[in-house]
Write a structure and sequence with these properties.
Elements: H1 3-11, E1 33-35, H2 45-51, E2 60-62, H3 70-75, H4 81-89, H5 102-110, E3 121-125, E4 128-132, H6 142-160, E5 164-169, H7 173-182, E6 188-195, H8 201-208, E7 215-221, H9 224-236, H10 238-244, E8 246-247, H11 254-270, E9 278-283, H12 288-298, E10 303-310, H13 315-322, E11 324-326, H14 346-353, H15 358-371, E12 373-375, H16 378-387, E13 388-392, H17 395-409, H18 415-425, E14 435-439, H19 447-454, E15 475-478, H20 481-491
Helix pairs in contact: 4-5, 4-11, 5-6, 6-7, 6-11, 7-8, 11-12, 17-18, 17-19
The protein binds pyridoxal-5'-phosphate.
């Protein structure tokens, strides 16, 4: 390269503006987001929100981690949940239209939650706590992110004068949480496919009894996999995707992770952080929830360990034990929201633990696709084990733990939470460290398992007692892609 061209590089582009200006602080520029596979364009928050997946197949992460000092974290203890949510999310949405009134948004998002603390802590034993994340409209932790993210979609789209169509497939929890988050939002139409006759009555009714013009439930004459295949095919059809402005709200969306970071700070400061370190036990499926905890740690929260709880679908436990990610079939369990084959958000941890080497992550993901397995490089695996440990519990153990907790404390816990409690208690943590288990679902969402373990049928909370009297609205369609596409085209308001 000639001297001339080097000089052009130095003065060209943006580098000239980054020369240090003595005595003046650097102008703060809004946070940019980068893909875990390094080949997608960097985006600002609003585009990351609307696009979900990066166009190189990777997942978006902020280019740098915002930091909170110990003094700032200590001051969080005085805030209520919506105020804390606005504080935690503010650095991530700088430069977005959302920045103007973020606390207004979080107040609205959590106003309908049925516990005034939003995410109350409950003590089970010495240094052993539950963080109850089931006081939202659909009784599972997904409401904590989706209620805020639904409002974010609506505000960003309105500011742009744009609209989107959300299409998703569900076997249970995600569909209802997404519907509750987007119902009556003018800028959004939502279509949720569920397999006819294969969801529980509570789960189906939580989706089909929502009375809103922009909500469309489709019962497909097929299986969950058929539903998911059709959604994938719709995303793969570029003309269709552009025509209806297709979007997704699945857990790979960065905005959902961001909103989940809040309750890690919330719970941590209420049991003594930042003066002492805490530990979290997280019933895990797609790895989105526990990764949000890792983000909180990156931002300054002192966390001694994250315990990743799995049911018999233990790909993650096996990974932490061996350093190798190897796929196997999925078996149905009492904790269906953790019945996963692959944890898509694990890619984010991989990226962080491999020194943010997107090309290397991309190669491992290609390998995974080809051979259903990959080995994490030794150094990255060791790095992960500093912060994470895995534990598994089968259905028999899950029933036993639900029953034990009931006898010890009088509390009814759901099967997912039971896996978390067990994992936290068996991870060999120092007894002096407060252990926080995320209670991810209300026991009434899984009444049969709770009744089998305790003899008590957990009643639905007040707001849902008439669920079985409400009118259901859904359209039954054949397991036929063109039929489903035609229905979506016809009902999406563009
Ligand atoms: C979705 C879900 C999980 C798994 O969370 P991930 O973020 O996918 O790891 C655990 N428990 C319940 C009740 C859920 O709905």
């Amino acid at each position: 390269m000639s001297k001339h061209s080097v000089l052009e590089l130095l003065i060209g582009g943006t580098s000239i503006r980054r020369l240090p200006t003595i005595g003046l602080p650097e102008p703060s520029s809004p946070l940019r987001y980068i893909s875990t596979r390094a080949r997608a364009p960097q985006l600002g928050f609003d585009d990351v929100l609307l696009s979900g997946l990066a166009n190189d197949g990777g997942l978006y992460l902020p280019a740098t981690w915002p930091q909170f000092s110990a003094t700032e974290i200590a001051s969080f203890a005085g805030l209520d949940y919506p105020a804390l949510a606005a504080r935690i999310m503010a650095p991530f949405v700088e430069g977005s239209v959302l920045a103007k009134d973020l606390e207004g948004l979080t107040r609205q998002a959590y106003a309908g939650f049925t516990h005034s603390a939003v995410a109350p802590l409950k003590q089970l034993a010495a240094n052993d706590w539950l963080v109850e994340l089931f006081h939202g409209p659909t009784l599972a932790f997904k409401d904590y992110a989706l209620q805020a993210v639904g409002l974010m979609f609506d505000r960003v789209l309105k500011a742009r004068g744009a609209r989107i169509t959300i299409v998703g497939a569900t076997s249970g929890d995600t569909g209802s949480a997404a519907i509750e988050a987007t119902k009556n939002k003018d800028a959004v139409d939502i279509f949720i496919l569920h397999p006819e006759g294969r969801t529980s009555d509570v789960q189906r009714r939580q989706m089909t009894t929502v009375d809103a013009a922009n909500v469309h439930n489709i019962a497909v004459r097929g299986t969950f996999d058929d539903c998911q295949d059709m959604v994938k095919a719709m995303f793969a059809d570029e003309a269709f995707r552009n025509d209806i402005r297709l979007s997704a709200v699945n857990s790979i969306n960065w905005a959902r992770i961001m909103a989940q970071v809040v309750y890690y700070f919330w719970a941590g400061v209420h049991v003594g952080a930042p003066q002492r370190a805490v530990a979290f036990s997280v019933p895990t499926g797609n790895f989105g929830n526990v990764f949000a905890g890792f983000v909180a740690q990156r931002m300054g929260l002192p966390v001694a360990k994250f315990i990743v709880g799995s049911n018999s679908n233990d790909i993650l436990t096996r990974y932490f034990e061996t350093g190798a990610m190897t796929m196997s079939g999925v078996v149905p369990t009492l904790s269906p929201s953790m019945d996963i084959q692959v944890s898509s958000n694990f890619e984010r941890l991989l990226f962080e633990s491999m020194g943010r080497d997107g090309a290397a992550v991309s190669r491992l993901m290609d390998q995974f696709k080809q051979s259903n397995g990959y080995a994490v490089p030794e150094a990255a695996h060791r790095e992960m084990l500093k912060h994470f440990a895995g534990q598994r519990l089968d259905d028999k153990g899950t029933t036993r733990v639900i029953s034990e907790i009931y006898r010890e404390t009088g509390e009814l816990i759901d099967p997912h939470t039971a896996v978390g409690v067990y994992a936290g208690r068996h991870a060999g943590l120092d007894r002096g460290i407060p252990r926080l288990t995320l209670a991810t679902a209300h026991p009434a969402k899984f009444p049969a398992a709770v009744e089998a373990a305790t003899g008590i049928y957990p009643p639905l909370p007040q707001a849902l007692t008439d669920l079985f009297d409400r009118k259901e609205r859904f359209t039954t369609l054949n397991n036929d892609l063109s039929e489903v596409k035609a229905f979506v085209r016809q009902h999406a308001r563009r």
